[in-house]
Design a protein that fits this description.
The chain has 97 residues and is an alpha+beta fold. The protein contains 2 helices and 4 strands; from the N terminus they run ββαββα. It has a 4-stranded antiparallel β-sheet with strand order 2-1-3-4, covered by helices on one side.
Length: 97
């Protein structure tokens, strides 16, 4: 499994890669935790965009892309404390250290 997290926006409107993970390079315990988190949030079944109603001139937006074998899915959402975004924000916080 591969996971990439990118952030865009903010005052300067930049795009940056925050994390790029490959489970082939992780410990078995880390792999288990990541796969469990992805599975528990049903990531591959999520809509491709969340929080489109949330606006702000300097808001960051996150883009999480997960590849698992032949499956590839990307989810985009704003950096906002809306309850619907909590699982996605927690995933970003866990993987970006």
């Amino acid at each position: 499994m591969k996971v990439e997290i990118r952030r865009t926006g903010g005052f300067a409107g930049l795009e940056e890669e925050l994390a790029s993970l490959d489970t082939a390079k992780m410990s078995p315990d880390q792999v288990r935790q990541l796969e469990e988190r992805i599975r528990s949030m049903a990531f591959f079944g999520l809509a491709s965009s969340f929080g489109t109603h949330i606006t702000g001139a300097d808001l960051y937006r996150f883009r999480i892309t997960v590849e698992d074998g032949s499956r590839r899915h990307t989810v985009e959402f704003p950096d906002h404390d809306s309850p619907e975004l909590t699982p996605l924000r927690e995933l970003v916080q866990t993987l970006v250290r």
